[in-house]
Design brief:
This protein folds into two domains: 64 residues, Fe,Mn superoxide dismutase (SOD) domain (Helix Hairpins, Orthogonal Bundle), CATH 1.10.287; 100 residues, Iron/manganese superoxide dismutase, C-terminal domain (minor pseudopilin epsh fold, 3-Layer(bab) Sandwich), CATH 3.55.40. Helix content is 47%, strand content 11%. α2 packs antiparallel against α3 and α5 runs antiparallel to α7. It is globular, with a radius of gyration of 17 Å. The chain binds manganese (III) ion. Manganese (III) ion binds next to α1 and α6.
């Protein structure tokens, strides 16, 4: 343990750990409180704390999270980018799951999924396959880009935000995300995610919120 530097009371940290959107047991049996005790309390919090350490002196202190991520990438601040992006990615991951998740996506998301992937079943197959195909640590995303939906996979902390795409839904495929509940069975975790955990209502709301010309 290192002693934290005293901070002036009026300086708010740039990165904060937002509360989970549901009680820790709410996703059981598909995603356990035990996993969240590590994944949220330890892993996610560590990215918040490390990000707040690394941002000092960069001129990005106090900027919105998305801006820090994009600027850190542009300026080649690798460690700051990694921690800031991991804060964002985990925030979105918690929002991407909900008790009694899965089911059929509400409109207008369902129409866009059908248009972009052929059918909801094909979307789920492609999303699971992308997550299985991400070698090592990373993320699988449903994003909006130029009026279309896409499935994107990224390695480590990488996020489609830096490519100008709007994330709607994300699944964490780092081993720490699923190992306690699923051990090495990443495919089972991904199938459970799309069928039982995914917050399609939340993704539909994010799609509706996209600014700019509607396709
Ligand atoms: Mn994680």
């Amino acid at each position: 343990m290192t002693n934290p530097q005293p901070k002036p009371a009026d300086v708010k940290p740039t990165f904060t750990l937002p509360p989970l959107p549901w009680p820790k047991k709410a996703l059981e049996p598909h995603y356990s409180e035990n996993t969240l005790n590590y994944h949220y309390d330890k892993h996610h919090k560590a990215y918040v704390d490390k990000g707040n350490e690394l941002i000092v002196g960069t001129g990005l202190e106090g900027k919105p999270l998305e801006e820090v991520i994009i600027e850190a990438k542009k300026k080649n601040l690798g460690p700051l980018f990694n921690n800031a992006a991991q804060v964002y990615n985990h925030n979105l991951f918690w929002e991407s799951m909900t008790p009694n998740g899965g089911g059929t996506p509400p409109q207008p998301l369902l129409d866009k999924i059908n248009e972009s992937f052929g059918s909801f079943d094909k979307f789920k197959e492609q999303f699971v396959a992308a997550g299985i195909g991400q070698f090592g640590s990373g993320w699988v995303w449903l994003v909006e880009s130029k009026g279309k939906l896409e499935i994107v996979k990224t390695g480590n902390a990488e996020t489609p935000l830096t490519d100008g795409k709007t994330p709607l839904l994300v699944c964490d495929v780092w081993e720490h995300a699923y190992y306690l509940d699923y051990q090495n069975r990443r495919a089972d975790f991904l199938k459970t995610f799309v069928d039982k955990l995914a917050n399609y209502g939340g993704a539909a709301a994010k799609l509706k919120n996209i600014k700019g010309p509607k396709p």
